[in-house]
Design a protein that fits this description.
Elements lengths: L7 E3 L4 H11 L3 E4 L5 H6 L7 E4 L9 E4 L2 E5 L4 H6 L1 H6 L1 H8 L4 H6 L2 H7 L6 H7 L3 E6 L2 E6 L4 E3 L2 E2 L6 E8 L5 E8 L7 E8 L6 E2 L1 E7 L6 E2 L1 H6 L2 E2 H6 L1 H12 L9 H21 L6
Parallel strand pairs: 1-3, 2-3
Antiparallel strand pairs: 4-5, 5-10, 6-7, 6-10, 8-9, 11-12, 12-14, 13-16, 14-15
The protein binds flavin-adenine dinucleotide (FAD).
């Protein structure tokens, strides 16, 4: 059995103190939130730290609040607390629904949204949806506080763009408006999703015309990304846009640079994209913007 090496846990009182601790211990320190990825990686010697900076104890870093039409979700809010949040259910129900389907209840009760985004494991759900919702994140570190668009946070498999000693502090998600529809669909056989697809549509006349569309694909590629070519095809009169779904699915697949691997051939993944784009389409158009 693989054992964890010995380490010390430090409990900062603020994000700024956490950042100072990281700077003080240098490469020997890492940020510790729920630990669902970190402790596994440490057990397998993929990561080694003598000092863990426990950000879960920072007061208020797990809060979920509404400010100026945007939800501010603290980085240490767990998947479970987001799933159950009345605020999220009311103002962005598609995110609450996604969170209810992450992993299993034990992981959801411990794992945090911030940890999920920072770890950037390719087979994850939230970033793909957050891309079409045009979320941003806030980070705090030696250089102060800065906002990062979600598409600039994840740079590759297991790679984020946080600066040294920076802590992710919150995820800011615009609230849904009545003229918007969104859906997240995924395909999962094993423990983690094999494909995730987020779709967001703006329809001022209740589904007859689509003025804007956003679509993002995750899990079949090293990191999730939007597909601008497909987004153009999914705007205009609804009946016309619907006919272009196969073309849009091919555009998404082409942009994803699919390859053959243990999860299937590139042709199989292309087929999944066709199936799941159509599913997301119907789901988004039928999704209510606010929870019942
Ligand atoms: C069995 C299993 C099944 C899973 N299934 C799914 C699934 O279906 N869908 C899905 O999306 N995910 C899935 N996951 C991943 C899960 O969502 C993540 O493990 C969890 O969200 C990570 O959060 P954490 O708080 O535990 O992060 P930790 O393990 O504590 O940290 C992860 C990494 O992020 C860094 N970090 C954490 N917080 C911060 C911060 N605030 N600032 C800077 N760096 C930080 C840590 O240093 C570490 O490198 C699964 C995980 C497991 C174990």
């Amino acid at each position: 059995m693989t054992l964890l090496h010995r380490f010390d846990i430090h409990q900062p009182a603020s994000a700024s103190e956490a950042s100072q601790m990281l700077a003080g211990y240098g490469d020997a320190a890492g940020v510790y939130a729920g630990g669902t990825e970190l402790l596994l990686a440490m057990k397998h010697d993929a990561l080694q730290y003598d000092h863990l900076i426990d950000v879960k104890v920072i007061p208020g870093l797990d809060s979920i609040e509404l400010h100026d039409g945007r939800m501010e979700i603290g980085a240490t809010a767990t998947h479970r607390s987001i799933e159950r949040s009345a605020l999220v259910r009311e103002h962005q129900p598609v995110l609450a629904e996604l969170e209810s389907q992450v992993a299993n209840v034990r992981v959801r009760a411990t794992g945090t949204l911030g940890g999920n985004l920072c770890f950037a494991e390719p087979h994850s759900d939230p970033a793909t949806l957050l891309l079409v919702l045009e979320a941003t994140v806030t980070a705090e570190g030696p250089g102060g506080i800065r906002e990062i668009p979600i598409d600039k946070l994840i740079a590759g498999a297991y790679t984020n763009t946080l600066m040294p000693h920076e802590i992710l502090t919150k995820i800011v998600v615009p609230c849904a408006r009545p003229d918007q529809r969104a859906a997240y669909v995924k395909f999962q056989v094993h423990e983690r999703p094999a494909l995730g697809l987020g779709l967001w549509l703006e329809t001022p006349d209740d589904g007859r015309t689509l003025t804007r569309a956003r679509v993002a694909l995750g899990c079949v590629c090293p990191f999730p990304s939007r597909a601008p070519g497909a987004e153009k095809l999914l705007t205009g009169a609804l009946v016309d846009a619907e006919q272009r779904l196969p073309q849009a699915a091919d555009t998404i697949a082409d942009a994803a640079d699919l390859s053959d691997d243990h999860e299937g051939s590139s042709e199989y993944k292309r087929h999944l994209i066709h199936v799941f784009l159509r599913r997301a389409w119907h789901k988004a158009l039928h999704n209510k913007v606010t929870a019942q």
